[in-house]
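ok, trying the design again with the full structure, not the truncated one.
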């Protein structure tokens, strides 16, 4: 099947691409490389031993999208492209709304021009905001607490309206919890620019010696050991969820939001321990005050994914830490060393 992947050079995109190629899909990557490296795509080609088209372009550019859709004629789109840093979104909200929201509108418009009716969109658990109850199920109220989360919320609503107005359209909004890990080969992985915003890339950079210690924001939460608890999902499981969602859109119309998590949580200190075990390195940490906007616990209800997509996470935090370490130790500077 012909699938256009926006943001396919990024962390989750590159892992999904690998699985799409292994399943013999015909793929085109559309990416502006604002937060990724063409090196990731080169490595995906080597790992899959398969070729695919790459188009450098911005999703805000409807003309460029129109041309690419005309040439490639995709049957479905997986839409990863967008900006994703919560902190930065507070400083540059208009940039986030332009790239994420306006960019998605251009994409949906062009899809319809070319009669491409199937989309799987990268949403996020940040759409839920403060937990009214746990685990978060897909009916939980949506109250995102920052501009990044609001872009995801608005895009969800726009896709929902798009699908409602075009009766043949089919959309799956995948609400990711906390994606971590890397392909088992250690050849591709998460390669953040600058200081990582997320826990596991931060821990792995401490383990490899790029950063001195981990700052733990708060150890007085109401959790097993006082540190924040999150639902981490292995990027390989997450990639599989996209393939299942693409299959689902073949036989369904309308729009469904679906959580992608494991339903199990790990605290910051549990993750540190798992990483020390996987890497054989120590991860020094310092406990500091809570950080504004952080919640004590976040956990996904996972029944809907299993029911609608027949998908369930298989990998645990030991797999996540082992594969992250494989990647980080073989590529201490990420993709930059080649
Ligand atoms: N990683 C996470 O923790 C997480 C959690 C929830 C949701 N998400 C969402 O999943 C998607 C993928 O995340 P990721 O971690 O792989 O991020 P990433 O930054 O590694 O990948 C995003 C890709 O999109 C490209 N891109 C950005 N803006 C673009 C634009 N205007 N036009 C074309 N390409 C553009 C970037 O160059 C990059 O290759 C994002 O939409 C993100 O918001 C990520």
């Amino acid at each position: 099947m012909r699938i256009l992947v926006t943001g396919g050079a990024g962390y989750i995109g590159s892992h999904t691409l690998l699985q799409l190629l292994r399943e013999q899909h015909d793929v085109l990557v559309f990416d502006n490389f604002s937060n990724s490296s063409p090196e990731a795509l080169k490595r995906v080609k080597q790992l899959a031993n398969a070729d695919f088209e790459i188009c450098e372009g911005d999703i805000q550019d409807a003309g460029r999208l129109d041309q690419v859709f005309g040439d490639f004629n995709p049957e479905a789109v997986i839409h990863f492209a967008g900006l994703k840093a919560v902190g930065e979104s507070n400083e540059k909200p208009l940039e986030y709304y332009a790239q994420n929201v306006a960019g998605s509108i251009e994409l949906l418009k062009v899809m319809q021009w070319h009669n491409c009716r199937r989309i799987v969109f990268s949403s996020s658990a940040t759409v839920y905001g403060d937990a009214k109850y746990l685990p978060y199920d897909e009916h939980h109220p949506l109250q995102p607490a920052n501009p990044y989360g609001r872009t995801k919320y608005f895009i969800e609503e726009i896709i929902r309206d798009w699908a409602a107005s075009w009766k043949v359209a089919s959309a799956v909004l995948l609400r990711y919890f906390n994606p971590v890990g890397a392909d088992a080969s250690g050849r591709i992985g998460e390669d953040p620019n600058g200081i990582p915003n997320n826990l596991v890339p931060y821990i792995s950079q401490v383990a490899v010696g790029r950063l001195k210690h981990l700052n733990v924001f708060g150890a007085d939460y109401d959790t097993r050991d006082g540190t924040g608890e999150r639902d981490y999902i292995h990027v390989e499981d997450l990639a599989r969820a996209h393939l299942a969602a693409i299959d689902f859109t073949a036989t369904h119309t309308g729009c469904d939001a679906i959580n992608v998590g494991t339903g199990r949580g790990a605290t910051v200190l549990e993750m540190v321990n798992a990483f020390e075990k996987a890497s054989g390195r120590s991860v020094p940490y310092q406990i500091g005050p809570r950080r504004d906007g952080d919640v004590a616990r976040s956990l996904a209800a996972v029944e809907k994914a299993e029911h609608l997509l027949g998908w369930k996470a298989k990998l645990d935090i030991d797999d996540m830490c082992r594969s992250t370490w494989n990647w980080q130790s073989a590529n201490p500077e990420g993709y930059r060393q080649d």
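Keeping the full-length input from now on. The CA atoms of residues 279 and 325 lie 6 Å apart.
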